[in-house]
Design a protein that fits this description.
About 35% of the residues lie in helices and about 25% in strands. It is α/β, with parallel strands linked by helices. The termini are far apart. The N terminus is likely disordered.
Length: about 240
């Protein structure tokens, strides 16, 4: 017998596979509509009223419910962040879509993600680019995300455990870098690993002050420009730095 607290999980487990698949599909469609509403509401900040169709299509395909704990699955397609353990979260779908869009992904790109978390952002990117490298500093999260990504068939995603502040120099340069934790500043090692003409999306600030999503563009080896996109709230980037 299910407790009131666990009714959502019990309902999902009781559904026939086909009905459950239809329910997830419908939930993803509602999530995409919520993202579109957020884009319109923040258009004056982000400079556009809609995101790339390719990005929105992938948001409607990647099974977010597979990237959250079982207890969170009934809420998987709400347009909000959710806890994934170890003091970490899976980002709000709107933010995932926006950060992906700001990278301007191309089919032949090689991208770097700092902060694998559950693996959801890497999975979204993997459907838009040639290859994704993703680093997670928490071993338990990195291991579980790597297994999940492999099980779901995202075979162009490569993960490892490490301090993302220093990037992944062996496979640099990258056509784009996305950082999913807030840094106190833009990490110089990541700037160096960014290809000329490429972009980095990173939240900058600390947990006690306003954080801003920052768009970094590398114009040449000695020149970058930055633009604040909108206020955000991310868990902090941790490591030896």
């Amino acid at each position: 017998m299910c407790s009131l607290r666990a009714w959502g999980i019990c309902l999902l487990l009781a559904m026939a596979p086909g009905a459950m698949a239809d329910a997830w599909t419908a939930s993803r469609l509602q999530m995409v509509r919520a993202i579109e509403e957020d884009v319109r509401a923040t258009s004056w900040q982000i400079g556009r009223r809609e995101l790339q169709q390719s990005v929105m299509a992938v948001m409607g395909e990647v099974p977010r419910h597979r990237f959250v704990p079982l207890s969170m699955r009934p809420m998987a397609y709400l347009n909000r962040p959710l806890p994934i353990g170890h003091g970490q979260t899976i980002s709000q779908p709107y933010i995932v879509a926006l950060m992906t869009d700001l990278l301007q992904p191309d089919a032949d790109d090689v991208m770097l993600e700092i902060g694998t978390g559950s693996g959801y952002q890497a999975a979204v990117l993997s459907r838009l680019v040639r290859k994704v490298y993703s680093i997670e500093i928490i071993p338990e999260l990195g291991e579980s995300a790597g297994k999940r990504i492999a099980e779901l068939g995202y075979d162009n995603v490569h993960t490892r455990t490490g301090d993302g502040y220093y990037g992944w120099p062996e496979v640099a340069p990258f056509d784009g870098i996305v950082v999913t934790a807030a840094a106190g500043h833009v990490p110089p090692p990541l700037v160096r690993q960014l290809r000329v003409g490429a972009r980095m999306i990173i939240p900058v600030g600390d947990r006690f002050s306003v954080q801003h999503l920052l768009l970094v563009e590398k114009h040449d080896e000695d020149s970058i420009s930055t633009r604040q996109v909108l206020p955000v709230r991310f868990v902090p980037l941790t490591g030896t730095h």
